[in-house]
């Protein structure tokens, strides 16, 4: 939408105008509209004619003084003619002051505008006083210029409008208005749309305790001084799209019952927003925080896509689901969950009735895609639904407190053969999405939401690897183990970046010991191997009887030295009863020594010798995998 022009038009107005004071450099002259029945505006009307015109006015009369110049005395005379004897206050019907110039103080104190009130492109060279004014129709101040203070304290507007303490029952438009002094709207009420798009506040803008019952539009506005919205209440959408805050921005104790849009807003100075309660979304996408920022929000959703954080920042949140996709973080930034309600300086807790339907106060991260996480700290947040692929320097992410991730589907699933059972571990949301999209997916994996994009094992393996390193750097070895498991799982399933031979090795590693992390699996295989070894030894490895040594010698004739040869018969394969208690004890002794990579010294058949050799290789490996798994789980 283009920016409306604030320059006066050099062409004549589209109404019959006075033309007084025409000069070569200004051939249009006075732009004041004719007073009815005359050929001059109210300012240049003859005194007799002016007095007659004013005398003919009654309270509630429609007036049209577009383009006219008003001194304080002339405006006071006009308002006195419209003053209601019953109330003592001016009562005006339909009012047109488009392009009018108020040369001194413009006092519309307690005036009632029963029809629409148009001040489009009007210029207030002094104080603009609309204290306790009532606008029952549309109030338009588009492109108006306030060179002095603008005071609308306790005014009443039935449509959209923005002024301190005013009540706007109709729409009030101040688009492209320029407030060169203080703009005071303290305790104003806007029952309709309040339009301040492209407005410029060169002095302080005071919107303390204002109530916006309709849409509040401040898009492209510029606040050069303090922007004060202390205790303001936004019951509709609060639109601060592309607003520039050159001074301090105060939103202390403000409440937002609708969405709050701060997209493309620029905060040039340090800012502290909150504690604030929003019933719906807060949108900071594309906003720029040039100075240190402290945000304390209780809201259902916080959107910070492509937000630029050019200084340190701290976000203290409750209830929020946070989307930080493609944000730029140049200095340390902390996102922390608040377990208890925010507390005001006077010790009172912040009321959170607007969030009464929310399930709990947990803070959930929705996305960190495209973020450089080197300066990011997460504290006590739920990462079960967070999208991590595309995050830069994820290994430098710091996680404090309790940061939870998704779990795998519980229990054993019997709908297919062989049955599937997943050992409990922390997983990423993207692994859930990938597994849920597979033809053989079991119930329990979370399907992706539209727009999350498709990622597979090739993209997830480096994410798991980076998070594993982040846990290791945080001295959380048990936590790192889950992400090592996830990394190996993704490599095992990656048919593009992992060779067939490597996938085969990984499959064996997973099957035997869960990548060196599942001690029960390795011990199960060890027990099975020992049992097989014992059975094979009892059936084929132990001889029928233990061979005895035999000594043979020959005595030379006539006596002399006798030489003996000691020999042992080859073990004989068993022929009788093989599964006896004695043979079990011998087989168990051989097996236990094999587990410890020792020889038992037991006589064995040829088959038993080979059985023992295989046992002395495989069983120590399985024992080592079990010990490694226990170490990885308990190491701190």
Q: Care to describe what's here?
A:
The protein has 636 residues and is of the alpha/beta class. It is 22% helix and 22% strand. The protein is built from nine helices and 53 strands.
Features:
636 residues, 13-stranded parallel beta sheet, 53 strands, rod-shaped
C-alpha geometry:
rod-shaped
Helical percentage: 10-25%
The fraction of residues assigned to DSSP E strands is 15-25%
Record field, number of beta strands: 53
Radius of gyration: 42 Å
User: Structural class per helix/strand content?
Assistant: alpha/beta
What is the residue-averaged pLDDT? 84
Instruction: Give the uncertain stretches in residue-range form.
Output: 1-8, 154-162
**Helix tally?**
9
Largest sheet at a glance? Answer: 15 strands, parallel
Query: First CA to last CA: what distance?
Result: 59 Å
Compact overview of the structure:
By secondary structure, this protein is an alpha/beta fold. Helices cover 22% and strands 22% of the residues. The longest helix has 29 residues, at 606-634.
Fold topology:
Layout: H1 47-55, E1 63-64, E2 69-70, H2 72-81, E3 91-92, E4 95-96, E5 101-102, E6 106-107, E7 112-113, E8 117-118, E9 123-124, E10 128-129, E11 134-135, E12 139-140, E13 145-146, E14 150-151, E15 156-159, E16 167-170, E17 172-173, E18 178-179, E19 183-184, E20 189-190, E21 194-195, E22 200-201, E23 205-206, E24 211-212, E25 216-217, E26 222-223, E27 227-228, E28 233-234, E29 238-239, E30 244-245, E31 249-250, E32 255-256, E33 260-261, E34 266-267, E35 271-278, E36 281-283, E37 288-289, E38 293-298, E39 301-303, E40 308-309, E41 313-318, E42 321-323, E43 328-329, E44 333-337, E45 364-367, E46 376-379, E47 398-400, E48 406-407, E49 412-413, E50 420-421, E51 426-427, H3 429-436, H4 457-473, H5 477-493, H6 500-513, H7 519-541, E52 549-554, E53 563-568, H8 581-595, H9 606-634
Parallel strand pairs: 1-4, 2-5, 3-7, 4-8, 5-9, 6-10, 7-11, 8-12, 9-13, 10-14, 11-16, 12-17, 13-18, 14-19, 15-16, 16-20, 17-21, 18-22, 19-23, 20-24, 21-25, 22-26, 23-27, 24-28, 25-29, 26-30, 27-31, 28-32, 29-33, 30-34, 32-35, 33-36, 34-37, 35-38, 36-39, 37-40, 38-41, 39-42, 40-43, 41-44, ...
Antiparallel strand pairs: 48-51, 49-50, 52-53
